[in-house]
Amino acid sequence: MSDSRNLLRTQQFPAVLLLLAAALGLLLANLPTHGPIAAVLDFHIAVPGTGIDLSVAHWISDGLLAIFFFVVAMELQYELTRGDLSSFRKALQPAIAAAGGVLVPIIIYLVIAGGEATASGWPIPTATDIAFALGVLAVFGKGLPTAVRVFLLALAILDDIIGIIFIAVLFAHDLNWIYLVLAVVGVVAFGILSRMLPVKHSWLVIVAMVVVGVLVWALMLLSGIHATIAGVMLGLAIAQSPSMRARHVLEPWVNGGILPIFAFAAAFVVIPAVSPTQLSPAFFGIAIALPVGKIIGITLFGWIALRIGKKEKAPTLTIMDLVAAGTLGGIGFTVSLLLANLAFAGDAATRDQAILGVLVGSLIALVLSGIIVTSRAAWHRRVTAASS
């Protein structure tokens, strides 16, 4: 049991599991199994007396994924306070590169799919999937210098922050301020409870934290803001010591259960039986903006970032290292799939094609990153061997 949990804490295996889950969802959606599985995903489960009534698919994307964002937010908290983003100097260069990795994909998407029916999908190609990117880096990047890994991690974390802001700001609807204020009060209570650990009866505090966390999620859902933001707020509010333990406990469940289930459900779309010319501009906008936009944006803005400040403080990165980071940044996957569901929630046909665009664009970036990261790792190993 401990061996399987340790495997799920690695960077390689969860990325493979995520890819297999998405492939299985896409496959079963296009076989005779589509009807029964679609019926399950569309089945509604209500919580009596609360006004909460969600389909199974939404329980996955709004409920289970909140736990994923809780874990992400705890990692963000660590990086912002003690890690690679804990000072302005550390954060400046990856922040500039991340800005390029957001702006250029948006521009490319709007050039291709800026029409009235599809323009709302512009946030979709801005995300980077941290699990996938680090998984590829772990598999193919043996020999890469620490500077490349640190730069990529900081870049992906900043991308996560931007994606979270997009979800919170762009996809709120019918905002209920009373529920929102109560949710914020709950987050404060959660933070206070976490600072009471450890105590003699720690289990009572932990139970109270779980109850408060669930209440915050429900209040956030009812407030009109996407419920995953509850996970973000709770993850940022928790005290750092219990957050480290919570991350360690939750990580295998998130990597081995929550993310594959979400990937399966999100990728459960029917491939349209049309010619490529009949596909939605949203499909092409995302499929191109993810790999191409990220490579251009991260490389160009990263190159500019390397020339800001004193030369001796610049990270030891070359232009090709930035290209490698750009290809890894194009693996949007988890957050891009969520953004696709949110951006086209009222248009099922465009939503499905946008999801296909995420899968195709991420797959292209995955293949390119595998090739380029392998090449860069080999080059760095040769340079290290020659200098030793």
From TrEMBL:
<feature type="transmembrane region" description="Helical">
    <location>
        <begin position="201"/>
        <end position="219"/>
    </location>
</feature>
<feature type="transmembrane region" description="Helical">
    <location>
        <begin position="121"/>
        <end position="140"/>
    </location>
</feature>
<keyword id="KW-0813">Transport</keyword>
<dbReference type="Pfam" id="PF06965">
    <property type="entry name" value="Na_H_antiport_1"/>
</dbReference>
<feature type="transmembrane region" description="Helical">
    <location>
        <begin position="318"/>
        <end position="342"/>
    </location>
</feature>
<keyword id="KW-0812">Transmembrane</keyword>
<feature type="transmembrane region" description="Helical">
    <location>
        <begin position="253"/>
        <end position="275"/>
    </location>
</feature>
<keyword id="KW-1133">Transmembrane helix</keyword>
<feature type="transmembrane region" description="Helical">
    <location>
        <begin position="177"/>
        <end position="194"/>
    </location>
</feature>
<feature type="transmembrane region" description="Helical">
    <location>
        <begin position="281"/>
        <end position="306"/>
    </location>
</feature>
<keyword id="KW-1003">Cell membrane</keyword>
<dbReference type="GO" id="GO:0015385">
    <property type="term" value="F:sodium:proton antiporter activity"/>
</dbReference>
<comment type="similarity">
    <text>Belongs to the NhaA Na(+)/H(+) (TC 2.A.33) antiporter family.</text>
</comment>
<feature type="transmembrane region" description="Helical">
    <location>
        <begin position="95"/>
        <end position="115"/>
    </location>
</feature>
<dbReference type="InterPro" id="IPR023171">
    <property type="entry name" value="Na/H_antiporter_dom_sf"/>
</dbReference>
<feature type="transmembrane region" description="Helical">
    <location>
        <begin position="354"/>
        <end position="373"/>
    </location>
</feature>
<dbReference type="InterPro" id="IPR004670">
    <property type="entry name" value="NhaA"/>
</dbReference>
<dbReference type="GO" id="GO:0006885">
    <property type="term" value="P:regulation of pH"/>
</dbReference>
<protein>
    <recommendedName>
        <fullName>Na(+)/H(+) antiporter NhaA</fullName>
    </recommendedName>
</protein>
<feature type="transmembrane region" description="Helical">
    <location>
        <begin position="225"/>
        <end position="241"/>
    </location>
</feature>
<feature type="transmembrane region" description="Helical">
    <location>
        <begin position="56"/>
        <end position="74"/>
    </location>
</feature>
<keyword id="KW-0739">Sodium transport</keyword>
<keyword id="KW-0915">Sodium</keyword>
<keyword id="KW-0472">Membrane</keyword>
<keyword id="KW-0050">Antiport</keyword>
<feature type="transmembrane region" description="Helical">
    <location>
        <begin position="147"/>
        <end position="171"/>
    </location>
</feature>
<dbReference type="GO" id="GO:0005886">
    <property type="term" value="C:plasma membrane"/>
</dbReference>
<keyword id="KW-0406">Ion transport</keyword>
<comment type="function">
    <text>Na(+)/H(+) antiporter that extrudes sodium in exchange for external protons.</text>
</comment>
